[in-house]
Amino acid sequence: MTTHYDVAIIGGGIVGLANAWMAARRNLKVVLFERTSVAQGASVRNFGMIWPVGQLAGETLTMAMRSRDLWLELNAAGAVELEECGSLHVAHQTDELAVLEEFCNLGSYEVSMHTPAETLQKSSLVNPEGLLGAMWSPTELRVDPRTASANIAKWLAESQDVDTQFNTPIVGIDKKTMTAADGRQWSADKIVICSGSDLQTLYPDLLQQSGLKLCKLQMLKSIAQKETIPNSPHIASGLTLRHYSSFRECPSLQTLKARIAEQTPELDQYGIHVMASQFSNGEIILGDSHEYGDDITPFDSLEIDDLLLRELRKVICLEDWTIIERWHGIYAKHSDLPVYQASPEPGVFVMVGPGGAGMTMSFGLADHAWNTTLGN
User: Fold this and answer.
1) 340-345 and 348-352 as β-strands: parallel, antiparallel, unpaired?
2) Does residue 364 sit in helix, strand or coil?
3) How far is 19 from 358, CA to CA, in rounded Å?
4) Where are the alpha helices (DSSP H) in 201-274?
5) Distance between CA atoms of 264 and 259, rounded to whole angstroms?
6) Is the CB of residue 135 less than 8 Å from the CB of residue 111?
7) Is pLDDT at 370 greater than 70 in this prediction?
8) Per residue in 319-345, pLDDT tens?
9) Which pLDDT belongs to residue 267?
10) Which end of the chain is more exposed for a tag (fewer CB within 10 A), N or C?
11) CA 151 to CA 135: how far, in whole Å?
12) Which is nearest to 96 in space by CA: 311, 303, 279?
């Protein structure tokens, strides 16, 4: 006999977990499918940054802040452990400082400029050499990406009555009936596909025409530093200003981009913008790069790692630069949309491609979707 549910979620990464939670909050009978024993994709291969300051002002920022509230709710419920760490965008070049000052004047974000002395009081990791100042934002959070998805899934199962089916790849959907690779079947009134970077298994024709593209990033982790700063703020370099959409309105951004393109074109070639996040155990996640589409290979580049470390040394000071882990992640990204949504057949919905903002946006995106299309 086929077990029936109100809602089925396919994908146990952060987007799938967010949708499962939003459905469970509406007292619906929910099942969550994940092809592996634990989520292993982009949801576990990132900085653990919840990053509202990087989101475009307006509806996207509103959803990011709603997502932040929901993360804090999970923290209060004991599902995850969060640090309300905030972030520092540091400036070591005059054009970087100009962009940050212009950004503060936009009035859309809860940000303020800090002098070099104030910046170093916030974080002793910041490189004082040539430091011109920094922009402080209190809204950013930190979560351990290695454990967050598994902990949320456990909490959903234990506290929200979500049926979690791990090691269960769904390979076909026909008239709201889902078939796993081993032949087992389930049915649901609504099916939400949150398949991450897998654009091949379910509705490949739709996803190939969606405008989604894959992005590969390389990241590193340092050895634990002797000095650990409680709630150490995330640190972003001036290079990040050309990456996040929130800075588009700053007039000096074009000057900054032109300087980087002229002086260090290799950074544009590999989409490098450097950030650092120190965890409570003293280890620091470092990154990252961005290669798209046909440029993606299964092989990591030592040149990219060397460039990351070169640029990071300009921004932060570590007592020990020993790298203990190197990895890459792959995520799907849409060039125009914060997430790609479609309905390939009645009762079946697709939500994939939050890009590099999955940890930041997923709960807000799912909440919005369930308040509009999915909740009807």
Assistant:
1) antiparallel
2) helix
3) 13
4) 204-208, 253-263, 265-269
5) 8
6) yes
7) yes
8) 999 999 999 999 999 989 999 999 999
9) 98
10) N
11) 33
12) 311
